[in-house]
Specification:
The complex is a heterotrimer of chains A (about 425), B (about 300) and C (about 280).
Chain A lengths: L1 H19 L8 E7 L4 H17 L3 E7 L2 H13 L6 E4 L1 H8 L8 H10 L4 H4 L3 E2 L2 E2 L2 E13 H6 L11 H13 L5 E3 L7 H13 L18 H14 L12 H8 L3 E7 L2 H8 L7 E4 L11 E10 L4 H15 L1 H8 L17 H4 L2 H5 L1 H11 L2 E2 L12 H6 L2 H12 L3 H15 L2
Parallel strand pairs in A: 1-2, 1-3, 7-8, 10-11
Antiparallel strand pairs in A: 3-10, 4-5, 6-8, 6-9, 6-10
Chain B lengths: L1 H8 L3 H29 L17 H8 L1 H33 L5 H7 L2 H4 L2 H12 L5 H8 L16 H27 L2 H9 L4 H30 L2 H7 L10 H10 L4 H30 L1
Helix pairs in contact in B: 2-14, 3-14, 4-9, 4-11, 7-12, 9-11, 9-12, 13-14
Chain C lengths: L1 H33 L4 H4 L14 H9 L2 H32 L5 H10 L5 H14 L6 H26 L2 H9 L4 H12 L1 H17 L2 H6 L8 H6 L9 H22 L7 H6 L1
Helix pairs in contact in C: 1-13, 3-13, 4-7, 4-10, 7-10, 8-9
The chains are: A alpha/beta (about 425), B mainly alpha (about 300), C mainly alpha (about 280).
């Protein structure tokens, strides 16, 4: 009897020791990812990628949480303050700059270096996240503008659909010609609302006119009020005059609908338009065409460019390793290609290798619009983002982007009838106030 | 004898406190604390969320008072709420009276009256933005086809039209709410009163003035107060329809506060503006209540 | 002469009804009809008032591709929970403020009002950390708590007219009969103000059902999102799914309409009149 008791005791002791030994206590690392790509099909695609990753790496578990950009700032800051920040989060340059102020964003140099050794990452994608001596996010995909038009409209107007206008003058001339011939009632849909849509349109024009810098060499110096900017706004006004009534309130969707509905001949739109056109128009894929954003004769090729990246919050070493593993996995060209096609045409590759991936080009929708997408990728090399064009970034850039001052300048011209010069000066002063 | 019992039972303060305590505590916890926090913030210089900020006394107050845009948004708020209250109450009254009548399909319509209020504002805003667009929307299409106008109206895209458009959309959304309030009150008026009046030969109009109105007055007065407070506080509808624009044409107080806090990232200034708004409304509410309690006496 | 007068009265009556219907229904008709149009017809520049083609594509797509049903259940849960609590709280508080006498009852009355003087956005900023501390972020309970706080004060006000309209004599009579105060409250008083309670229930339900601001910030995971937040996900940004916008709107309207059909009987005239006699 006594012997049995001893044996039982020993067995329990061993079991106890074994149960708390690290060999058995291996829990998967759990990561929480937040992002703002809310359309359901994108969420689905991301989940597929996460599932594929977790299958290959069963000791890492990643959960995605989605929100809209509208809530992102409040929610993220709220979570950070409450100590409940996610482990990593998708971001844009200005969003990152805002969140970084809280001190919660971790420098991500190690991961970037690792990736840069393996892949050729486009400068325009990584630069907006590099300042104060560190990288604050790993770029994942880019977005930029193209000039879109319908081949049928061109043909009807007696123009060659393979030759979109390249210069500002050519654009105006083509518009005048098509409107005069009553092929379309209006020229180009210009969104003027105080949203990113309004800002982006203007900024693409600014880049082509070599007026892409808001800041001077020093990050406290605003040089927005310069002749090139004024010139751009004057051209912008000419385009606005060809825009349909009501575009003062237009955001992203209306310029797209206008092009689909043949209300306008042109649109300067982000690649997301392809999804809209493809899924919802009576028109055929073949009818859509695009060209580079028109530039002035003495200008440069250019477009607004949003490098979307991922920021790291967690300080836990194991979790950081897990994030690194995930990003390494994601950057493999075939995985990246599949990832980018969560929204074909909108999300553009930021590595040379991904831009050549089979998984990217074999997507059915990408195949339908391959020419246009190639153009987009080409154009992205000349992409810039306002406030992020210099080596250093002013930490108050969020104020300028948040107030949509580029669009406000344009609104001032339209609503109050002031000259471009006056409006630009007003905006520049507001910018100076914003960075104080 | 009854008086004595009544005094003991109904005027027992403990019973009263006991009943009202849950709601008071609940509201205090969920709403007064944030208010106090905002007042606290207004004396600091917090700009981005999460900053500590340091004490700067009345600086924010001076800045807000001197801000031309603040004054303008005050005026816009007055116009916005005044028009909203007027239109909503009139339309609500009209709807309640109609629904109070007997007619075929009355029950059916009663079920649908709350529809505008049920649809989430975000959905409504998208739909109206779409319907009201001068180039792509159905409203202008109809107006032009029926020759009511010769060229489309940029309802949301022009400084002249945007305010009244936003007011009308918001009115459409809210009037059923108040209509139901008023309708419920109409139901309480004893039928016998109307029957007696009819026998005495009173016209519908006279019935309305001498029976309906007096009975509704208490509720109506309350409804108007609430309506005005809520109208001032509207944020989502305006924001989603217009973003405060074009320009600042629809920038009322809530919009101003939001922009100050989340676009200009000057949180303490936004809190200060909110405190101003609170004080102004407090004065308004107090004066209003004083007036109606005096009237009642 | 009488028949002519009657004729005109009826005519005006029906015209008024039609006018109300038109104002009410035209945008809703547009949404309803749009939800059945295939997308190309939906976004055409020249609209069609009677659909050329009918399709259930948007409904099916919405239910299949998004978590619509989940969001819907969450909304119902939150709305029901809050309205139940609100009915209880406001009935008690209303009786206390309007029928009892004690120092400070008008203070409470006014304090409740003060709540609405304050902008919601800033309320949210302060609420979030509180909920975070008690681990209620990303929990539907936080929404129920918030919504009760927001809607209850107003509903106490709504009760005012109903509560003050009940004659005091009734309570006196009950007292004489030997009823205690709780019995008076529950057995006699509350049934008489049934329309008021119904109104309060409906109001707070609907208000919680359609609320967006707090729901968007306090809920993080998809499985707890409410309807407005869920719908917002495909209504913002670069592409808007018009079909889902329309079909989603129709689906959202259905439950309250059906619910109201059942509660509508509380609005029948004479229900309380008879009781008071």
């Amino acid at each position: 009897m006594k012997k049995l008791k001893v044996v039982v005791l020993m067995v329990s002791a061993v079991a106890l020791v074994l149960s708390i030994s690290p060999v058995y206590a291996k829990n998967p690392v759990k990561l929480i990812l937040w992002h703002q790509e809310q359309p359901p099909h994108r969420v689905k695609r991301y989940q597929e990628i996460l599932d594929m990753f977790m299958k290959e790496y069963p000791d890492i578990n990643i959960v995605q949480h989605v929100q809209t950009w509208g809530e992102a700032y409040t929610k993220t800051m709220g979570a950070i303050q409450a100590g409940k920040a996610p482990d990593f989060q998708f971001t844009t340059p200005d969003f990152a700059a805002n969140i970084k102020r809280s001190g919660a964003v971790q420098p991500i140099d190690e991961i970037i270096q690792l990736l840069q050794e393996k892949y050729h990452i486009y400068e325009s994608a990584s630069a907006p996240y590099h300042y104060e001596g560190h990288y604050w996010a790993v770029p994942l995909y880019g977005m930029n503008h193209l000039l879109y038009y319908r081949k049928s409209v061109f043909k009807e107007g007696g123009l060659d659909p393979k030759n979109p206008p390249v210069t500002w003058t050519a654009l105006l001339n083509t518009i005048n010609r098509l409107v005069a011939a009553e092929v379309v009632p209006h020229g180009i849909g210009v969104p003027v609302s105080k949203t990113y849509a309004g800002d982006q349109f203007i900024y693409s024009l600014l880049v082509t006119n070599k007026a892409e810098h808001l800041f001077g060499e020093k990050k406290d110096e605003i040089i927005f009020d310069n002749p090139k900017t004024i010139e751009t706004y004057e051209f912008w006004k000419k385009l606005y005059d060809t825009s349909p009534l009501g575009s003062l309130a237009w955001q992203w969707v209306e310029p797209q609908l206008a092009l689909i509905g043949k209300e306008t001949a042109f649109g300067i739109i982000l690649g997301g338009f392809l999804g809209h056109w493809d899924g919802q128009a009576e028109a055929l894929p073949e009818d859509l065409a695009a060209g580079f954003v028109p530039r002035p004769e003495d200008g440069q090729s250019g477009t607004v460019y949003y490098s979307n990246g991922v920021m790291l919050y967690t300080k836990d070493k194991a979790k950081q390793e897990a994030v690194k593993t995930f990003l390494e996995y994601l950057f493999q060209p075939e995985v990246m290609g599949y990832f980018l096609n969560a929204q074909p045409g909108l999300f553009l590759p930021i590595t040379k290798e991904a831009s050549e991936a089979d998984s990217y080009w074999s997507d059915p929708m990408v195949q339908r619009y391959a020419d246009i997408i190639k153009l987009e990728i080409e154009q992205s090399r000349y992409g810039k983002l306002y406030g992020f064009t210099r080596d250093e970034v002013n930490p108050n850039i969020g104020r300028i982007a948040g107030q949509y001052l580029l669009a406000q300048t344009a609104q001032k011209m339209v609503i109050e009838g002031v000259s471009a010069e006056e409006a630009v000066k007003w905006a520049a002063d507001k910018m100076r106030e914003a960075i104080r | 004898m009854i008086e004595k019992i009544k005094r003991k039972v109904l005027e027992d303060p403990l019973f009263g406190y006991f009943l009202v305590a849950p709601i008071v505590l609940w509201v205090f916890a969920t709403l007064f604390y944030p208010l106090l926090r905002a007042i606290y913030m207004s004396f600091l210089n917090i700009e981005f969320l999460g900053e500590r900020g340091r004490f700067i006394g009345w600086e924010n107050y001076a800045r807000i008072l001197g801000d031309k845009e603040f004054g303008l948004s005050f005026i816009r708020t007055l116009i916005w709420s005044g028009a909203n209250v007027l239109l909503q109450i009139i339309l609500a009254f009209f709807a309640a009276l109609v629904l109070d009548l007997e007619f075929k399909g009355q029950k059916f319509i009663r079920n649908w009256i709350l529809l505008p209020w049920v649809i989430p504002v975000i959905v409504l805003a998208m739909i109206f933005r779409w319907m009201l667009d001068p180039s792509l929307g159905v409203v202008n299409y109809v107006l032009e086809k029926t020759n009511i106008v010769s060229s489309p109206i940029p309802f949301l895209g022009s400084v002249d039209w945007v305010m009244i458009t936003a007011i009308l959309v918001n009115t459409w959304r809210w009037f059923p709410f108040y209509a139901v309030m008023i309708l419920a009150t109409l139901q309480i008026i004893p039928v016998q009163l109307y029957e007696a009046a009819k026998i005495d030969g009173a016209s519908p109009f006279q019935q309305f003035c001498y029976i309906t109105l007096p009975h509704i007055m208490p509720v109506l007065v309350t409804v108007i107060l609430i309506c005005s407070l809520w109208a001032v506080n509207v944020f989502d509808m305006i924001w989603l329809l217009t973003r405060g624009g074009p320009g600042n044409a629809t920038q009322t107080f809530p919009i101003f506060i939001y922009q100050k806090g989340f676009q200009e990232y000057r949180l303490s200034q936004a809190a200060t503006a909110a405190v101003f708004m609170f004080i102004l409304l407090l004065i308004y509410g107090t004066v209003y209540l004083r007036t109606i309690t005096l009237e009642e006496k | 002469m009488n028949t002519v007068k009657q004729f005109f009265q009826t005519l005006i009556k029906y015209l008024a009804v039609l006018l109300l219907l038109f104002i009410l229904v035209s945008p809703i008709y547009w949404i309803f009809v749009s939800s059945f149009k295939p997308t190309p017809e939906l976004i055409r520049v020249t609209p069609t008032f009677i659909p050329h083609t009918l399709t259930l594509f948007h409904y099916l797509g919405l239910l299949k591709e998004t978590n619509f049903m989940r969001y819907f259940l969450n909304s119902i849960y939150v709305a029901t929970g809050s309205s139940l609590l609100v009915v209880i709280l406001t009935s008690l508080a209303g009786y206390s403020i309007y029928r009892c006498r004690y120092i400070g009852r008008y203070f409470f009355f006014h304090m409740l009002l003060a709540i609405y003087i304050f902008p919601r956005v800033l309320l949210l900023l302060s609420l979030y950390p509180v909920f975070a501390k008690v681990n209620l972020v990303d929990n539907l309970l936080s929404l129920v708590i918030t919504y009760v706080g927001i809607t209850a004060p107003f509903n106490v006000w709504i009760m005012r007219a109903f509560f003050t309209s009940v004659p005091l004599e009734l309570e006196d009579a009950a007292l004489v009969d030997g009823a205690n105060r709780l019995q008076i409250l529950f057995k006699i008083f509350l049934p008489l103000v049934a329309p008021g309670i119904a109104a309060v229930a409906i109001n707070s339900f609907l208000m919680s059902y359609g609320e967006y601001l707090f729901a968007s910030i306090l809920i993080i995971s998809d499985e707890y999102k409410t309807l407005p937040v869920g719908m917002a996900q495909f209504l913002q940004g670069y592409e808007i799914s018009w079909g889902w916008l329309a079909s989603g709107s129709v689906l959202i309207i259905l439950p309250p309409v059906i619910g109201f059909a059942f509660l509508g009987k509380y609005f029948i005239k004479g229900l309380t009149a008879g009781a008071i006699k």
